[in-house]
């Protein structure tokens, strides 16, 4: 790359960091890339760090020493997260979203890249320090959320299937009890998809009782894997008890009246966590 003016270098460095979250980048990488001294690169990074933290974009951490470098960790401020979630709650309360059985129609929201981008960033923010190897979800509606989250954690995605496909090779399958209708269902995961003893973050779009997530946890035991966190976009507040206790929800569906089409959605337990950057 040709030598850039400092203003142009700052823009390019910022973009480079934003597209490589949770990646340790040696200072020599930037020095060689921009044909600049390490001291100049360090000054540039100090400016970027200040802006990231003041604007609530994330943290820029530095590791000293020969094997050191700089790492960008995406974070979302509590104020920005609350603003986004409250907007989503108002969208989810639209009467036409009410479905039989106390469910909500959310497919259109799951198809909007801007919303998925923000939701993925929020999940990545709260699980940033959880030491995760892979993000996992079950087909199909949770897939966009899992990829959005994995993008900001810089991790691969593993998808649990409802049935085994020939193209997946040999697989581990289990039966589980669906929490909502008590039906016995099956889920399957290719043996090649997940290494044994992996540390896993489970992401799902909707949790009523938690039977599907509990099933994924049982499946992960077959791989000797550890569940490091569970994130759900919307949880149901109409059930007395969930099958899982430790999870993070962005929104909580409190009531759905199928007759009046009245829906009440409020912010979830995400805001009880303290993994937020400080507002600038």
From TrEMBL:
> Which superkingdom is the protein from?
Bacteria
Residue ranges of every copy of the Phosphoribosyltransferase domain listed in the record: 112-254
The reply to whether rRNA-binding figures as a keyword in the UniProt entry is no
Q: Which InterPro entries match?
A: PRTase_dom (IPR000836), Pur/Pyrimidine_PRTase (IPR050118), PuR_N (IPR015265), PurR_Bsub (IPR010078)
GO terms of biological process kind: negative regulation of DNA-templated transcription; negative regulation of purine nucleobase metabolic process
GO MF terms listed in the record are:
DNA binding
Q: Which UniProt keywords apply?
A: DNA-binding, Transcription, Transcription regulation
Question: PANTHER family under this entry?
Answer: HYPOXANTHINE/GUANINE PHOSPHORIBOSYLTRANSFERASE, PUR OPERON REPRESSOR
In Swiss-Prot or TrEMBL terms, this protein is called Pur operon repressor
Tell me the organism. Paenibacillus solanacearum
From which lineage does this chain's organism come? Bacteria, Bacillati, Bacillota, Bacilli, Bacillales
Please state the gene responsible for encoding this protein.
purR_3
